[in-house]
Amino acid sequence: MAVTSQREASTVDAAEVERFAALADEWWDPRGKMAVLHRFNPVRLAFIRDAACARFGRDPKRLDGLAGLRILDIGCGGGILCEPLARLGARVVGADPASANIAAARLHAQAGGLAIDYRATTAEALADAGERFDVVLAMEVVEHVSDVPLFVARCVEMVNPGGLMVAATINRTLKSFALAIVGAEYVLRWLPRGTHQWDRFVTPDELEGAMERAGLRVTDERGVIYNILADRWQLANDPDVNYMVVAEKPAP
């Protein structure tokens, strides 16, 4: 029986890639199907910025606080997160297996005069090519891959010693089913129906366990909630639905 090595295996789910590729024209419409991601962006950007600045001794208040840091955004979609990271001075590589998403991202970056290295590729291909980064991001992507431990392991390969991996995803709880699927997709219609599958959500223990087995040390975990009164997303101590994790690779 043939055995597939980690280097040969793929974590890409073709159906998920097709689903998001069909939304390529929607990425930069703040009132369209990606509206919730646009509203979610400030809290995740601040979380990444603060974690990177703390790790690399930078001032998070500086407009160029991420200057010189090489950052990979896996599953970057249309570049909603890549662009503000680039404006903070980071050297950003945005990777997505859907070529339609990369085309949309490139067009928008060019219109804004931003130099972002967008690639229609996968985490596996980048890791196999020996790419290395100060920060590897897997934001709202692990719930869409076919093999979470393998995906995390390939991402970890690309983190420089002393660097960080930051991930954001959705917990697998009854509360997340009620809010992230029934509420967000069917009642409020924040997201297209079918965007998420509850059984593919990932618990903090599962995600952090995969990170630690791959050689990282988890340094922070924060929940993210929607504050109805303030009409914005914010960090919280409640990881029952959305949450973000920071992990570092020990320096030699």
What attributes characterize this protein structure?
globular; 8 helices; 35% helix; eight-stranded mixed β-sheet; alpha/beta; 8 strands; 252 residues
Strands in their spatial order, largest beta sheet: 3-2-1-4-5-8-6-7
The value of Rg in angstroms is 17 Å
Identify low-pLDDT runs: none
H/I helix tally:
8
The largest sheet is: 8 strands, mixed
- The overall pLDDT average reads 90
Helix content: 25-40%
Which class do the helix and strand fractions yield?
alpha/beta
| Backbone shape | globular
Q: What are the secondary-structure elements, in order, as H or E?
A: HHEHEHEHEHEHHEEE
Please provide the count of β strands: 8
| Amount of beta strand | 15-25%
What is the distance, rounded to the nearest whole angstrom, between the alpha carbons of the first and last residues? 39 Å
Protein described:
The chain is built from 8 helices and 8 strands; from the N terminus they run H-H-E-H-E-H-E-H-E-H-E-H-H-E-E-E. Helix 6 (148-157) crosses helix 8. The protein is of the alpha/beta class. It has helices at residues 14-21, 35-56, 82-87, 99-111, 123-128, 148-157, 174-187, 204-213; strands at residues 70-74, 91-95, 117-119, 133-139, 159-170, 217-227, 232-236, 242-248. Strands 3-2-1-4-5-8-6-7 form an 8-stranded mixed β-sheet.
Quick description:
With 252 residues, the protein is α/β, with parallel strands linked by helices. Helices cover 35% and strands 22% of the residues. An 8-stranded mixed sheet has the order 3-2-1-4-5-8-6-7.
SSE diagram, text form:
Blueprint: H1 14-21, H2 35-56, E1 70-74, H3 82-87, E2 91-95, H4 99-111, E3 117-119, H5 123-128, E4 133-139, H6 148-157, E5 159-170, H7 174-187, H8 204-213, E6 217-227, E7 232-236, E8 242-248
Parallel strand pairs: 1-2, 1-4, 2-3, 4-5
Antiparallel strand pairs: 5-8, 6-7, 6-8
Helix pairs in contact: 6-8
